[in-house]
What does this fold into?
Amino acid sequence: MLLIYQAHIYAYGTTLLLIALLALVLLLPWIDKVIKGGFDLFEPIILFSLFFLAGYVIPAVDLLDGTNVFLRVRGFAFENQAATMNVALFYVLLGVIFFYIGYYSSFGNALARILPSFEGSWSVVRLRRVVFIYIVLGVSLLAVLVITSGGIAYFISHLYRRLELLSGKYYFAMGALILAAGALVFYTYWLSRKRFMVCFWIFFACVVVSLSLLGSRTSIAVLLFTLITLWHYQRRRVGFVTAAWAVIGMSGIYIAYNMLFKEYFAVGQIFYAPYSHGEAGLLLSLWNRLTAGTLIQLQTFMVMIEKFHNFLLGRSYLSVLVSFIPRVIFPNKPISPAGIFTQGISPELLKAGTSIPPSLMGEFYMNFSLIGVVIGMALFGVFWKTLYIYRRRSSLASNLIYAVTLSFMFPWIRGESYGPVVQYLMLLIPLVVALKYVSCRR
It folds into this structure.
């Protein structure tokens, strides 16, 4: 009995040490930038460390005190939770170190030089033309989607059956992202002119409403984050206080979105902490809404390490390569990485229509084990250093491409290679087409 108790204390101490070490390593870029000067809140390595702190360190604390909502709701149990958690934290620490190695290597500088460039000036006539075309095209696609779903009244009244409504019609739903591309090009030019335009905010509000009705909360977050990033680089640098308020605001929007579209429209009521629990109960309910389904990277990684042993050797990435082929033409299309992961650990969840994203690092692991984590995270670091150097060209186009790509960092870290990558391409392709069209020589 004493030996078991001593082993438990040793494992607990090891866990605390790994959590502290991981937190320290993640804070190193912040310390380095503050000491050397030139701190940029929207530099990839700064946001990477922040997102990993949120996705791996915060859940680790919840796991230690036994209050982690995700594991409790999903009913996942471990043969030896402490040992599995220690292995997961060690792998995460290795992944972070190799991300730094990739980020600070010289490969990013070399790759940035071969990325395509755009002319520095924009034609106002062409800008208005491309925004108009995107509005017409986007609205037309969404109109076809609503009409083929039974009309606008039927569509809105059946939002709780959104998957059924959108089944086989996802190409028409792309209209919302085409509208978003037009709005972002419009916003980028408006920032360069330093004028307030009411028509843009009306346009942007319509885009947000259309994305909300489609249930695309990731796209809404991407749009908001892109606007803030562009403001940071083209109008005025965003400081810590402003960024903190932005995070609070976006968190509030996220919670309100879940309450309205994920609860009220889905089951007809909003769940919240009883008032008898007072303010503490309400705050706990809001915190659980924000973290239970979002900050789950460490938990899913632990589940994968213990229960996922048949490595895929790259097969999970096939779904991205064939994503734009309709299932009518290719009925045996590979399922998404989230589907593969969920099928491997909890088939009943997948049958119920629910899937769990494996996370970026988790997908590296389930394809190539630890070597996948090491190499994958190093390549991820090279990718972001390349984009950051590319942004330094300081053209309107490079700023916009960088801002949009940066806004997908958290969805990629938290999610999988399929959904976020496909969404990114569906937004990036019309953006690049528009930028090539409006760019011109002075």
